[in-house]
Amino acid sequence: MPIRIEFVADDGQRREVEATEGRSVMWAAVDNGVDGILADCGGCMTCATCHVIVPPEWAERLPPRSSDEEAMLEMTAAPREAGSRLSCQLVVTPELHGLTLRLPPTQY
Ligand code: FES
Q1: 1 has a pLDDT exceeding 90
Q2: Which spans in the chain are helix H?
Q3: Which ligand 1 atom sits nearest the alpha carbon of residue 87?
Q4: Is 45 in the pocket of ligand 1 (CB under 6 A)?
């Protein structure tokens, strides 16, 4: 069964993509040309331009942030929110099917 993840831009535009199990959510966005995910570092966790906001109902279904992710989330261009995550640190699993992520107003 395809794993589908939806990205909602700051202007409300929605984009649903098919994600590959075992790859990161960041690559699901980049591979499908989703605007609003820059991912300048390619997933090395040094850029914080893959910032996404996870809705509260999904937050507990995702693995917790590592201390490195916590630290990088202080570097995001848009202010960090309660549900902020780095999408390069979220590995796609079948359980993520139906996940909706909000994109911040800016990544730089
Ligand atoms: Fe650079 Fe996620 S892609 S921190």
Answers
A1: no
A2: 25-31, 56-59, 67-72
A3: 2
A4: yes
Options 3.30.1180.10, 3.10.20.30, 3.40.1350.10, 3.40.50.970; CATH for 3-102 is 3.10.20.30
Residue 57: pLDDT band (50, 70, 90) is: very high
Q: Quick one: pLDDT at residue 20? A: 98
Mutate to test the pocket of ligand 1, among 45, 51, 85 (most ligand atoms within 8 A of CB): 45
The helix or strand, by DSSP H or E, that contains position 18, with its residue range, turns out to be strand 14-19
Which pLDDT value is given to residue 62? 97
Q: Which ligand 1 atom is the nearest neighbour of the CA of 43?
A: 3
Residue 38 CA: which ligand 1 atom is closest?
3
Look up the pTM and report it: 0.97
Using CA atoms in the order 3, 94, 64, 102, what is the torsion angle rounded to 10 degrees?
Answer: 20
Q: Is the CB of 88 under 6 A from ligand 1?
A: yes
